[in-house]
């Protein structure tokens, strides 16, 4: 890199260190000056058995270290890993998977959205004691132990589970591993090898081996604590943990509005070469790496406000590091360079040490505060820090701003074998993005199981606590970006933060529906004339950008034909030539504009209908929604249609009757200027035509006890009175209109009373539609036979859904009304989206929000299950108790984390036998194996396990020939399909 080259943004962070379960807890620990040191936990090794204060052979001089509380917890189901594979995996791999997921979420991106992307994975680690124990246990060696261990697999497993296609590599340079990984990742992004990178460091202490080494080398602190740069420094205290950062080009991050913790301006890596010992640090090499990093970043040492040092607390190491820092930073500067080391808090985390320091520095720059350095009250006088231009932070220090308000810091990490790394950081550029209140929004939460959904709802409820209402849109948008897409899901529309939190809390009190759902099958019902009113859709226009934009499109398409803004008439109550929205010439274009905008806005957000139905004039917007008509074509037709009907002589009547079509047929036949205008149900028809004739029929029906209601209309629509309008419409409306296009969704025709193909919707159809009866009941019955899961009314109020309910034609479909009349607020539209998302539809959320609301807010990371533990095995027990006098034989089955489950035995029938085989291979209980469970995604069956399954099926089904894996894989994806396959091959008797 040269000065001016692309800077790299740190956009996401997650970590787990001793005493700190996440990055917020880590920061609290730092600013409070706390530490995570404890005695050696029992599951690791017997601290007392290995302890010898004198540090005798094969012993350690301390019983303390910084240990994590629950590194054995792993949410195997979330990642689709079988219990058997999880138990064989290095816990470091398991820790990395969960931390990587949460770090990507913290960057404002749903991890699933990275699938197929050129995202790199760079993991720093310097030991794998799990592999040491398990790969030397030859009798217990399995295929999963092979794939569950190895440095490369630590990185590769993250790439695999997130489906990332960029570089994937593990780095071992001892203590500097993860900071070197950061340097390599930043360079890979600049070189174009990847667009972004997940960088991690991980360390886990399972045996006393390195502790014994440190003791024998004279490097181990008796109290197990690092005291960096302190007069009390007496050696290393070991630590562990996992840290992950997500890196991206700064320009890309800013363009996508991602929040940025800090910016990597430059970095350098070098080696001591042949110095005064392979394990001894070199002052000259450390000076060199600092100088190179500053030159590449284009900054001067005096620009650096603080250095997060390597600071192990060893006498030689601290002295050499301070002299190297002093040689670079000791010149004239406005104030001393602050110095610290996170190792005082969490111990020397070895392969994760560099990433821990980097995370501390990024959080410090983000908050403009440098946490105190533990043990700084006893600063070592031998180091002469003041003379070196350095000062330990004895308390939390407000970081001084440099030019343009920028604060800079740096991080050092030095490897045991001489590989050194230094990274230069700057505070993130200040970007003013004021929150934009108002509008509509939807909060989303998703998880892989019902229990996980509840955990994550609780976390989100806490996250929104105390947030100002002006951020509600940003919070909603952030959940849509990050917390959506998993199998179990819930969403809610909210108009205030308090309401959002209350509804989230309410979900925790109530029973959340969590049945498995497929993709919803949605039908749009387009309302007919008579549903209009002045101001219809006004609230949604104010609240919903896509509706507003699509309404403007419809307005522009209609204006040449109307000579006026239809939005001004329909939504704002204005008039044209003394006529308002109830005048037919304006009513029909107004309804079309609203319906077009509503359907198109839903489509913009990912809600595209599988079927449509339009009642009379509603068919024009329905045809647009299916692509049969373009907006321009439909606008010209609807404007002409309304104008021609308006020009007819006034008069005529329309009367709703609670009777069947057969019951009124004879009465209608006696009145030649009256017809049945609509059949809305088995006992619901509308009569239309000459007012005298229609009223005579109505009177006769009323005498027989039928309910009749005369509608307020200007004309008798869908009657013989419309004949002239139909002729003129055929002559005038179709010039320049192309042949009808194929429909993209099923079109339930209320002219035909059945589904009609796109090519049926020709000019003759639209002419016929003017006088033909509206056969709503027949069309709705045809639609119902397709069993839609959701019926969405597209219009200014709910009308058709009520007709369908009375006719018994809604089946089990949910009924949604995004604009429910004059009382609509816009929240109903959001509630419609929330329902569809909760029921399994993936939506394109961005356009729902205003520009100022499309700003990501950091949310709590996914709350993984921690009830399943994968730790003890025969190998770890034998390995860790080798020097203990007490002998105890423990088998792997006895200490299996899932050993409480019943023993699985083969049943008598083929179903029982197959289920037992699947359960045995994956270490599941048979009760876990639901028919819809997917072998690969849900149960973690990889190619190894599928081969084992083929062998077992051959045995339990008593086949004469083995089942080829290449035959099994394409035909079987779920447990149910496997059972069907097994039954088939068993009956064939050919194998």
From TrEMBL:
Gene3D superfamilies: 3.30.70.3290, 3.40.47.10, ACP-like, Malonyl-Coenzyme A Acyl Carrier Protein, domain 2. Coiled coil: none annotated. Residues 5-427 form the Ketosynthase family 3 (KS3) domain. Pfam families: Acyl_transf_1 (PF00698), KAsynt_C_assoc (PF16197), ketoacyl-synt (PF00109), Ketoacyl-synt_C (PF02801), PP-binding (PF00550). Keywords: Phosphopantetheine, Phosphoprotein, Transferase. Residues 905-986 form the Carrier domain. One of its GO terms (molecular function) is fatty acid synthase activity. This is Acyl transferase domain-containing protein.
């Amino acid at each position: 890199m040269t000065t001016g080259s692309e800077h790299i943004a740190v956009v996401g962070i997650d970590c787990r260190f001793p005493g700190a379960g996440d990055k917020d807890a880590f920061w609290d620990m730092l600013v409070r000056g706390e530490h995570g040191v404890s005695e050696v936990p029992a599951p690791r090794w017997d601290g007392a058995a290995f302890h010898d204060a004198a540090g005798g052979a094969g012993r350690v001089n301390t019983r303390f270290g910084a240990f994590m509380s629950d590194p054995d917890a792993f949410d195997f189901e979330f990642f689709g890993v079988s219990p058997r594979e999880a138990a064989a995996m290095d816990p470091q791999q398991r820790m990395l998977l969960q931390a990587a997921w949460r770090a990507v979420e913290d960057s404002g991106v749903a991890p699933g959205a990275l699938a197929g992307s050129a995202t790199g994975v760079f993991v720093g680690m310097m030991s794998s004691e799990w592999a040491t124990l398990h790969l030397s246990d030859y009798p217990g060696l399995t295929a999963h132990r092979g794939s569950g261990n190895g440095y490369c697999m630590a990185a590769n497993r993250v790439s695999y589970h997130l489906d990332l296609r960029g570089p994937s590599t593990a780095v071992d340079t001892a203590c500097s591993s993860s900071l070197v990984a950061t340097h390599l990742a930043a360079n890979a992004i600049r070189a174009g090898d990847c667009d972004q990178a997940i960088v991690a460091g991980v360390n886990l202490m399972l045996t006393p081996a390195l502790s014994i080494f440190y003791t024998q080398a004279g490097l181990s602190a008796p109290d197990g604590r690092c005291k960096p740069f302190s007069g009390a420094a007496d050696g290393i205290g070991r630590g562990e943990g996992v840290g992950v950062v997500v890196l991206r080009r700064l320009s890309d991050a800013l363009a996508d509005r991602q929040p940025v913790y800090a910016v990597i301006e430059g970095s350098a890596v070098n080696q001591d070469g042949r110095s005064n010992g392979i394990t001894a640090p070199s002052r000259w090499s450390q000076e060199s790496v600092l100088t190179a990093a500053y030159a590449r970043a284009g900054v001067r040492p005096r620009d650096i406000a603080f250095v997060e040092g390597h600071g192990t607390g060893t006498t030689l190491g601290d002295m050499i590091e301070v002299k190297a820092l002093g040689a670079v930073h000791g010149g004239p500067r406005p104030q001393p360079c602050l110095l610290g080391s996170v190792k005082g808090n969490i111990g020397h985390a070895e392969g994760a040490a560099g990433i821990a320091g980097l995370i501390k520095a990024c959080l410090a720059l983000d908050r403009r505060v440098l946490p105190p350095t533990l043990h700084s009250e006893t600063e070592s006088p031998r180091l002469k820090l003041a003379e070196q231009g350095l000062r330990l932070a004895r308390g939390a220090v407000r970081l001084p701003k440099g030019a343009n308000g920028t604060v800079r810091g740096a991080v050092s990490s030095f490897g045991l074998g001489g590989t050194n790394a230094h990274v230069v950081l700057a505070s993130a550029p200040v970007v003013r993005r004021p929150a934009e209140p108002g509008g509509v929004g939807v909060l989303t939460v998703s998880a892989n199981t019902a229990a996980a959904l509840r955990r994550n709802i609780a976390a989100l409820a806490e996250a929104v606590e105390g947030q100002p209402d002006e951020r509600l849109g940003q919070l909603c948008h952030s959940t849509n970006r990050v917390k959506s897409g998993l199998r179990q899901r819930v969403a809610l529309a909210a108009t205030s933060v308090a309401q959002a939190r209350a509804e989230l809390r309410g979900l925790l009190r109530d029973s959340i529906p969590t049945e498995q759902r497929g993709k919803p099958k949605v039908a749009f019902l387009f309302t007919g004339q008579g549903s209009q009113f002045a101001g219809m859709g006004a609230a949604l226009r104010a609240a919903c950008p896509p509706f507003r934009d699509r309404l403007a499109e419809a307005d522009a398409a209609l204006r040449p034909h109307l000579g006026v803004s239809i939005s001004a008439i329909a939504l704002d109550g204005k008039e044209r030539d003394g006529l308002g929205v109830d005048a037919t010439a304006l009513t029909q274009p107004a309804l079309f504009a609203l319906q077009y905008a509503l359907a198109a806005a839903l489509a913009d957000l990912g809600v595209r209908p599988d079927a449509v139905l339009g009642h009379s004039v509603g068919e024009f917007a329905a045809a647009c929604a299916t692509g049969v008509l373009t907006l321009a074509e439909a606008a010209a037709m609807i404007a002409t249609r309304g104008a021609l009907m308006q020009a007819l002589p006034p008069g005529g009547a329309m009367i709703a009757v609670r009777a069947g079509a057969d019951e009124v047929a004879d009465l209608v036949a006696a009145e030649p200027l009256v017809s049945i205008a609509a059949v809305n149900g088995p006992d619901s028809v509308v009569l239309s035509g000459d007012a005298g004739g229609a009223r005579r029929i109505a009177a006769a029906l009323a005498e027989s006890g039928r309910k009749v209601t005369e509608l307020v209309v200007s004309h008798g629509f869908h009657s013989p009175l419309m004949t002239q309008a139909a002729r003129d419409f055929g002559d005038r409306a179709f010039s320049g209109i192309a042949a009808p296009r194929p429909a993209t969704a099923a079109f339930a025709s209320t002219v035909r009373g059945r589904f009609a193909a796109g090519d049926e919707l020709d000019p003759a159809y639209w002419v016929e539609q003017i006088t033909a009866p509206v056969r709503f009941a027949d069309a709705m019955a045809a639609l119902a036979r397709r069993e839609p899961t959701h019926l969405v009314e597209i219009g200014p109020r709910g009308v058709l859904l009520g007709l369908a309910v009375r006719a018994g034609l809604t089946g089990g479909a949910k009924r949604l009304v995004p604009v429910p009349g004059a009382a609509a607020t816009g929240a109903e539209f959001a509630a419609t989206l929330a329902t569809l998302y909760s029921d399994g539809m993936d939506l394109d959320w961005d356009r729902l929000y205003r520009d100022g609301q499309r700003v990501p807010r950091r949310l709590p990371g996914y709350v993984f299950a921690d009830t399943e533990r994968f730790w003890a095995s025969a190998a770890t027990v034998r390995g860790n108790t080798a020097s203990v006098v007490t002998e105890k034989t423990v088998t792997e089955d006895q200490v299996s984390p899932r050993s409480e489950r019943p023993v699985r035995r083969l049943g008598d029938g083929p179903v029982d036998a197959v289920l037992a085989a699947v359960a045995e291979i994956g270490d599941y209980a048979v009760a876990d194996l639901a028919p819809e469970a997917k072998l690969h995604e849900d149960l973690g069956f990889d190619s190894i396990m599928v081969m084992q399954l083929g062998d077992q099926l051959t045995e339990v089904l008593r086949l004469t020939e083995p089942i080829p894996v290449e035959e099994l894989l394409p035909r079987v994806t779920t447990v149910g399909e496997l059972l069907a396959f097994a039954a088939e091959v068993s009956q064939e008797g050919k194998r």
